[in-house]
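Design review, sub-item: ligand-bound model
Attendees: FS, YL, KQ
YL presented the inputs for the zinc ion complex:
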Amino acid sequence: MTDDCLFCRIIAGEIPSTEVYSDDVFYAFRDINPGAPTHVLVVPRKHIPKITAAEPADAALLGKLILTANKVAEQEGLCDKGFRYVINCDAWGGQMVFHLHLHILGGRKMDWPPG
Ligand code: AMP
Ligand code: ZN
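KQ shared the predicted structure:
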């Protein structure tokens, strides 16, 4: 838990969120400013500031992040038509919250390349 981290505070229940999935390792909740009809953030409970800060010891966690997102995508009914995963990194990637998270975006057709 990092006190000045928004997502650590959401995970700790200090800031309200709409839970979609929870287990010992991950917490998933709805994005407050959705970019698609379905927009869920899957967040490891461990505070890793960004994807490039992950270490070899985090390899299993990173694998489970995708498997957990797959479970959430299924639960949200996105798997028939398809959806998109996004991990933003640093300024040019558009990262605003420096606690690793994976966006699940679905419910409409996505543009490519992204803007
Ligand atoms: P990123 O730009 O990848 O760091 O994404 C951060 C995301 O967190 C954005 O899509 C925001 O809309 C979302 N966000 C910010 N504050 C909250 C909050 N309190 N609850 C839910 N989502 C949030
Ligand atoms: Zn954090």
